[in-house]
Amino acid sequence: MGGIASGLTEQSFIAAKQDGVVRLVGVRTVTNSEGNDVILSRKAQLIVESADGRELQSQSLEYGTVLLVKNQQQVKKNTKLAEWDPNNKVLITEQGGRVRYIDLIDNVTMQESIDDATGKSSRMVTEAKTEKYQPAVSIIDADDKELAHYFLPSGAILTIEDNGEIAVGDALVKMPREASKSEDIAGGLPRIAELFEARMPKDPALISDIDGEVVIGGLHRGLRKLTVTSGADSYDYFVPRGKQLNVVDGEHVNAGDQLTIGAPVLHDMLRILGPDVVQNYLVDQIQQIYRLTGVEINDRHIEIIVRQMMRKVRIVHAGDSDFLVGDRVDRIHFSAVNAVLRSEGKKVAVAKPVLMGITQASLGTESFISAASFQETTRILAEASVAGQVDHLYGLKENVIVGKLIPAGTGVSSFRAKYLGDDVSELEKQAREEEMQREYQPESDSDISL
């Protein structure tokens, strides 16, 4: 499938693939003026189950999706379950009342434009040149009391006139989604490389460190202050002006929820949510790119790479071990050392998981032969010689390089010991000597060079 063709298959709804029962997870809704339930939660999930509780279908639902079914409702195949605007994201108001514009000034922070296709005029928020103006919309009641306050990002399209009435659950503004990019494999490869190398995304998103309530502050030196508070704990985040927020003032968020639009930073996810979430995220994101082009890859192949990316840990407390704080050590070696310390009643070491890109993971392998064959050969061999390292040839690559049987399949030492006898090394030595004699034995005296 080409990039243009896949870009045209943007869906605006989800339908049941089989008969079943709807189960809603993490869903918080309000009813809009049309009587439809609109999702307000950021991590809602719709699941269709069989009568015996087996999961048949699962779909994540984003903020602003219109839900067309109820929890535990029986549905038939092809029943429409939910729908959304494929071209715009929306900001849903949780309060009904009168709309009041704040710092929305024509040709300064707001521009009116006419759509050539429809002929309709719309008002779009533009970025002010100074921090004096902070475009926002307030919802007020009949007594002019403010019920809700929403800051508006640049590019937002206003759907309600100033002093107009708005009902609970209606869209206050629309924010156009990014233009559809090429979704073929060529367009997705930069994203795959970004994930496998664990690089900083081009458009990084801020994620919350704790569960709590969001408080949106004003601008200071071009940055908007966001505070997430939970009891006595609070975390401050500073968002560049014009960056689109993913939360509203007073919204409750969980640890790991995105506060701004963009791609989450993998290292932040690892620090806040742990290794399991990062591993699942990597596999899902990479598979998503390949599935868009019709390429099916079993998860295990990607999981093997992800496992190598997360095979190191960083020492936080050395305990009674010989590790140094800040050292990166192999996870298996770290566990083995701690097991010995624990059996001896000593203080174990403490470490945190580390995420490395595949290039860095290849250079940090235990085998210096394997690492030297990849990149920076001179440096790696020089460091190995200075440190007097010994390569035990435990992996596949180093065994291929030196011409030995790889430790896989019938080459595994336990298999060879079982089927070829206990003294495998002597057998191999004898076979190798016989092979060399056959290769270098001259057929006649005339083959000997004098």
Explain what the structure shows.
The chain has about 450 residues and is of the alpha+beta class. Among the domains are: about 10-85, RNA polymerase II/Efflux pump adaptor protein, barrel-sandwich hybrid domain (OB fold (Dihydrolipoamide Acetyltransferase, E2P), Beta Barrel); about 90-175, RNA polymerase II/Efflux pump adaptor protein, barrel-sandwich hybrid domain (OB fold (Dihydrolipoamide Acetyltransferase, E2P), Beta Barrel), CATH 2.40.50; about 305-395, no CATH class; about 410-440, no CATH class. It has twelve helices and 27 strands. The protein is elongated, with a radius of gyration of 30 Å. The N and C termini lie far apart (about 65 Å). Residues about 1-10, about 180-185 and about 440-450 have low confidence and may be disordered.
Can you list the strand order of the major beta sheet? 1-9-7-4-3
Got a strand count?
27
**Proportion of residues in β-strands:** 25-35%
Q: How many whole angstroms does the radius of gyration measure? A: 30 Å
Which stretches of 5+ consecutive residues score pLDDT under 50?
Answer: 1-9, 179-183, 438-450
Helix residue percentage? 25-40%
The structure class reads alpha+beta
Q: How widely separated are the two ends?
A: 67 Å
Tertiary shape:
elongated
For the report, how would you describe the main beta sheet? 5 strands, antiparallel
Estimate the mean pLDDT confidence: 82
Question: What is the number of helical segments per DSSP (H or I, 4+ residues)?
Answer: 12
